[in-house]
Amino acid sequence: MEVVHLNKASFEKLTTQTEKAVLIDFWASWCGPCMKLAPELEKLAAAHPDIIVGKVEVTSDQENISIAASLGVNNIPAMFFYKNGQLAERLIGYMTAEEIEAKLGL
Question: What is the pLDDT of residues 4-45, one digit of tens each?
């Protein structure tokens, strides 16, 4: 499955649905670790088609900034893992796909 770029409406829809687990990355184009994380998330998405992997660019518009602020995102990359419509895990910083899998128990 491909990584999905999210806005406020699609973020809210994905994080409240209970059919699939959702991993959302908060990132910025000027963030080196964020750029390094991107191919790892693509690898994770390809290996786990049962998980939706999404990205929210935190400098693109005010709605995206407000999503990040409402979740207390102070550092990026920041990843939020939702299961059954509930926040299950929060990961901060660069990680390989394998490290993310281990932390999320995938």
Answer: 899 888 998 888 877 889 999 999 999 999 999 999 999 999
Q: Kindly report the pTM of this predicted structure.
A: 0.91
Residue partners of 88: CB distance under 8 A and separation at least 6: 21, 81, 82, 104
Give catalytic status of residue 31 as yes or no: yes
Which one from 23, 24, 34, 68 is the annotated catalytic residue? 34
CA–CA dist 54, 7 (Å, integer): 10
Pick the CATH number of 4-104 from 3.40.1190.10, 3.50.30.20, 2.40.10.270, 3.40.30.10: 3.40.30.10
Among 4, 31, 35, 92, which one carries the catalytic annotation? 31
